[in-house]
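Run log, item B.
One chain of 176 residues. Sequence copied directly from the ordering sheet:
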Amino acid sequence: MSTTTEATEVPTTFWTGRSGLIVPALLVVLGIFLVYGTITMDVPATATSPGPQVFPSIVAGGCFIVAILVTVQLLIKPEVVERGVDENGDPVTGPVSNWRTTAITVGSVAAFIVLLDPLGWVLAGALLFWGVSIGLGSRRYVFDAAIALLVSSAVQIAFSAGLGLTLPGGLLALVF
């Protein structure tokens, strides 16, 4: 009688463990959108240096760089997690895809895009940050919502006071 037993092999495909590739794809789309918006931006002659095109250019460049780095990482080393134990109690590991995280994160971005104009930046941005924190595994819902609201408010202030740009006011602009 043999004392070693083989763990069951789980069938894998190229996409197994690479669900995260949707994130760099979305980053590339966002980067292209930002480049297009920056190029077609109507900059007034009275704009001072560095001008309103600098920040979107930096963000677009960051999107492309992060997209490349994440893609390379996932192609070289897909995510590997424990899938249980075999008869001897040894862990069975293999590449998996975290579709729950991907779905919640992509859903948060989609909700942000749809709700940005009606709700405004502060509320839609807070919803985006809160949804992504949940997608990444946080279970402190009220704390995360408060931090998300704080961060989106700080971004609103930074854009308004620091750059002289206005983000959509939405519902709060109607109320206040």
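Observations after the first pass:
- Residues 1-7 have pLDDT under 50 and may be disordered.
- The CA atoms of residues 29 and 160 lie 26 Å apart.
Flagged for discussion on Thursday.
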